[in-house]
Protein backbone atom coordinates (compact mmCIF):
# COMPACT_ATOMS: atom_id res chain seq x y z
CA UNK A 1 0.00 0.00 0.00
CA UNK A 2 2.72 2.39 0.89
CA UNK A 3 4.43 1.66 -2.39
CA UNK A 4 1.19 2.24 -4.33
CA UNK A 5 0.65 5.54 -2.46
CA UNK A 6 4.13 6.67 -3.33
CA UNK A 7 3.59 5.58 -6.95
CA UNK A 8 0.34 7.61 -7.16
CA UNK A 9 2.00 10.60 -5.53
CA UNK A 10 4.85 10.35 -8.04
CA UNK A 11 2.46 10.20 -11.00
CA UNK A 12 0.52 13.19 -9.65
CA UNK A 13 3.76 15.14 -9.31
CA UNK A 14 4.80 14.22 -12.84
CA UNK A 15 1.40 15.25 -14.20
CA UNK A 16 1.60 18.54 -12.28
CA UNK A 17 5.15 19.17 -13.52
CA UNK A 18 4.06 18.40 -17.09
CA UNK A 19 1.14 20.84 -16.86
CA UNK A 20 3.35 23.55 -15.35
CA UNK A 21 6.02 23.02 -18.02
CA UNK A 22 3.39 23.25 -20.76
CA UNK A 23 2.04 26.49 -19.20
CA UNK A 24 5.58 27.93 -18.92
CA UNK A 25 6.29 27.12 -22.57
CA UNK A 26 3.05 28.81 -23.58
CA UNK A 27 4.11 31.96 -21.64
CA UNK A 28 7.64 32.06 -23.12
CA UNK A 29 6.79 34.27 -26.16
CA UNK A 30 5.10 36.77 -23.82
CA UNK A 31 8.21 36.77 -21.61
CA UNK A 32 10.50 37.40 -24.59
CA UNK A 33 8.27 40.25 -25.82
CA UNK A 34 8.31 41.74 -22.33
CA UNK A 35 12.10 41.55 -22.17
CA UNK A 36 12.40 43.22 -25.57
CA UNK A 37 9.95 45.97 -24.56
CA UNK A 38 11.88 46.51 -21.30
CA UNK A 39 15.20 46.79 -23.20
CA UNK A 40 13.62 49.38 -25.51
CA UNK A 41 12.27 51.34 -22.54
CA UNK A 42 15.71 51.30 -20.87
CA UNK A 43 17.28 52.65 -24.07
CA UNK A 44 14.65 55.42 -24.23
CA UNK A 45 15.30 56.20 -20.57
CA UNK A 46 19.05 56.49 -21.26
CA UNK A 47 18.40 58.87 -24.16
CA UNK A 48 16.00 61.00 -22.12
CA UNK A 49 18.45 61.09 -19.20
CA UNK A 50 21.29 62.24 -21.50
CA UNK A 51 19.05 64.89 -23.06
CA UNK A 52 17.96 66.05 -19.62
CA UNK A 53 21.57 66.26 -18.40
CA UNK A 54 22.58 68.30 -21.46
CA UNK A 55 19.65 70.67 -20.98
CA UNK A 56 20.43 71.03 -17.28
CA UNK A 57 24.04 71.89 -18.08
CA UNK A 58 22.95 74.51 -20.64
CA UNK A 59 20.46 75.92 -18.12
CA UNK A 60 23.13 76.24 -15.43
CA UNK A 61 25.51 77.93 -17.91
CA UNK A 62 22.77 80.33 -18.99
CA UNK A 63 21.81 81.11 -15.41
CA UNK A 64 25.43 81.89 -14.61
CA UNK A 65 26.01 83.88 -17.80
CA UNK A 66 22.96 86.04 -17.30
CA UNK A 67 23.29 86.50 -13.55
CA UNK A 68 23.09 90.08 -12.26
CA UNK A 69 26.58 89.79 -10.79
CA UNK A 70 28.08 88.90 -14.18
CA UNK A 71 26.21 91.77 -15.81
CA UNK A 72 27.58 94.12 -13.16
CA UNK A 73 31.11 92.87 -13.81
CA UNK A 74 30.70 93.40 -17.54
CA UNK A 75 29.31 96.89 -17.01
CA UNK A 76 32.22 97.83 -14.76
CA UNK A 77 34.73 96.46 -17.28
CA UNK A 78 33.04 98.41 -20.09
CA UNK A 79 33.05 101.55 -17.92
CA UNK A 80 36.78 101.22 -17.27
CA UNK A 81 37.41 100.70 -20.99
CA UNK A 82 35.34 103.77 -21.96
CA UNK A 83 37.15 105.94 -19.38
CA UNK A 84 40.53 104.66 -20.56
CA UNK A 85 39.66 105.54 -24.17
CA UNK A 86 38.61 109.07 -23.11
CA UNK A 87 41.94 109.54 -21.28
CA UNK A 88 43.86 108.35 -24.34
CA UNK A 89 41.93 110.80 -26.53
CA UNK A 90 42.79 113.66 -24.14
CA UNK A 91 46.46 112.70 -24.21
CA UNK A 92 46.40 112.67 -28.02
CA UNK A 93 44.85 116.15 -28.02
CA UNK A 94 47.39 117.50 -25.53
CA UNK A 95 50.27 116.00 -27.51
CA UNK A 96 48.90 117.57 -30.71
CA UNK A 97 48.27 114.20 -32.37
CA UNK A 98 44.58 115.02 -32.84
CA UNK A 99 42.80 118.20 -33.87
CA UNK A 100 40.18 119.84 -31.66
CA UNK A 101 37.52 119.32 -34.35
CA UNK A 102 38.16 115.56 -34.40
CA UNK A 103 38.61 115.36 -30.63
CA UNK A 104 35.33 116.95 -29.50
CA UNK A 105 32.80 114.55 -31.13
CA UNK A 106 34.83 111.45 -30.29
CA UNK A 107 35.43 112.58 -26.70
CA UNK A 108 31.75 113.50 -26.28
CA UNK A 109 30.65 110.06 -27.50
CA UNK A 110 33.16 108.35 -25.22
CA UNK A 111 32.11 110.35 -22.16
CA UNK A 112 28.41 109.74 -22.93
CA UNK A 113 29.13 106.01 -23.17
CA UNK A 114 31.10 106.08 -19.89
CA UNK A 115 28.27 107.99 -18.20
CA UNK A 116 25.70 105.47 -19.48
CA UNK A 117 27.80 102.54 -18.22
CA UNK A 118 28.34 104.19 -14.82
CA UNK A 119 24.63 104.89 -14.46
CA UNK A 120 23.72 101.32 -15.45
CA UNK A 121 26.30 99.88 -13.05
CA UNK A 122 25.14 102.05 -10.16
CA UNK A 123 21.49 101.18 -10.74
CA UNK A 124 22.29 97.48 -10.95
CA UNK A 125 24.38 97.67 -7.76
CA UNK A 126 21.52 99.41 -5.98
CA UNK A 127 19.06 96.82 -7.23
CA UNK A 128 21.31 93.99 -6.08
CA UNK A 129 21.71 95.57 -2.64
CA UNK A 130 17.94 95.81 -2.28
CA UNK A 131 17.26 92.29 -3.57
CA UNK A 132 20.15 90.47 -1.94
CA UNK A 133 20.80 91.38 1.69
CA UNK A 134 24.44 91.46 2.73
CA UNK A 135 25.85 88.03 3.36
CA UNK A 136 23.53 86.43 0.81
CA UNK A 137 24.97 83.90 -1.55
CA UNK A 138 26.36 85.40 -4.75
CA UNK A 139 25.86 84.05 -8.23
CA UNK A 140 22.95 82.32 -9.89
CA UNK A 141 20.39 80.49 -7.80
CA UNK A 142 21.06 76.81 -7.46
CA UNK A 143 18.97 74.44 -9.52
CA UNK A 144 17.25 72.04 -7.11
CA UNK A 145 18.22 68.46 -7.72
CA UNK A 146 16.34 65.48 -6.46
CA UNK A 147 18.57 63.01 -8.29
CA UNK A 148 22.35 62.83 -8.55
CA UNK A 149 23.82 64.20 -11.80
CA UNK A 150 23.62 61.68 -14.60
CA UNK A 151 26.71 62.81 -16.46
CA UNK A 152 29.91 63.51 -14.56
CA UNK A 153 32.06 64.56 -17.54
CA UNK A 154 34.04 67.73 -16.76
CA UNK A 155 32.95 70.86 -18.61
CA UNK A 156 35.80 72.59 -20.49
CA UNK A 157 36.43 76.15 -19.30
CA UNK A 158 35.10 78.89 -21.53
CA UNK A 159 36.59 82.32 -22.23
CA UNK A 160 35.57 85.35 -20.23
CA UNK A 161 36.17 87.05 -16.94
CA UNK A 162 37.09 85.00 -13.85
CA UNK A 163 33.64 85.31 -12.32
CA UNK A 164 31.76 84.69 -15.57
CA UNK A 165 33.02 81.94 -17.87
CA UNK A 166 31.30 83.20 -21.01
CA UNK A 167 32.10 86.31 -23.02
CA UNK A 168 30.49 89.67 -22.36
CA UNK A 169 26.88 90.22 -23.26
CA UNK A 170 26.00 93.05 -25.63
CA UNK A 171 25.41 96.24 -23.71
CA UNK A 172 23.30 99.26 -24.56
CA UNK A 173 25.07 102.10 -26.32
CA UNK A 174 23.96 105.71 -26.41
CA UNK A 175 22.06 106.65 -29.53
CA UNK A 176 24.08 108.75 -31.92
CA UNK A 177 22.81 112.29 -31.65
CA UNK A 178 23.43 115.41 -33.60
CA UNK A 179 26.84 116.75 -32.61
CA UNK A 180 26.57 119.98 -30.73
CA UNK A 181 28.27 122.99 -32.28
CA UNK A 182 31.54 123.88 -30.58
CA UNK A 183 31.14 126.27 -27.68
CA UNK A 184 32.68 129.71 -28.07
TrEMBL record:
Q: Name one GO biological process term.
A: ubiquitin-dependent protein catabolic process via the multivesicular body sorting pathway
Domain VPS37 C-terminal, by residue range, is 49-138
**Key word Nucleus present in the record?**
no
This protein's membrane topology, according to the annotation, is: Peripheral membrane protein
Where along the sequence do coiled-coil regions lie?
Answer: 42-99
> What ranges does the record give for the region Disordered, renumbered to this chain?
135-184
Compartments it resides in: Late endosome membrane
UniProt keyword annotation of Methyltransferase present: no
Q: Which InterPro entries match?
A: Mod_r
Which UniProt keywords are given for this protein, alphabetically ordered?
Coiled coil, Endosome, Protein transport, Transport
Q: Name one GO cellular component term.
A: late endosome membrane
Q: Name one Pfam family in it.
A: Mod_r
Bias-annotated ranges (Pro residues): 154-184
- Principal cellular location given in the protein's record: membrane
PROSITE patterns linked to this entry: VPS37_C
The task this protein performs is described as:
Component of the ESCRT-I complex, a regulator of vesicular trafficking process. Required for the sorting of endocytic ubiquitinated cargos into multivesicular bodies. May be involved in cell growth and differentiation.
Q: What protein family does this chain belong to?
A: Belongs to the VPS37 family.
Write the protein's name.
Vacuolar protein sorting-associated protein 37D
* Species: Bos mutus
Amino acid sequence: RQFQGLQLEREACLASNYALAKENLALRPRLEMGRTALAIKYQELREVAESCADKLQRLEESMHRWSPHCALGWLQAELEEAEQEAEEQMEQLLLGEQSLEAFLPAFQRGRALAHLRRTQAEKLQELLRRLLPTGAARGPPAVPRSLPPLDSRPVPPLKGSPGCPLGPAPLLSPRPSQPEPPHR
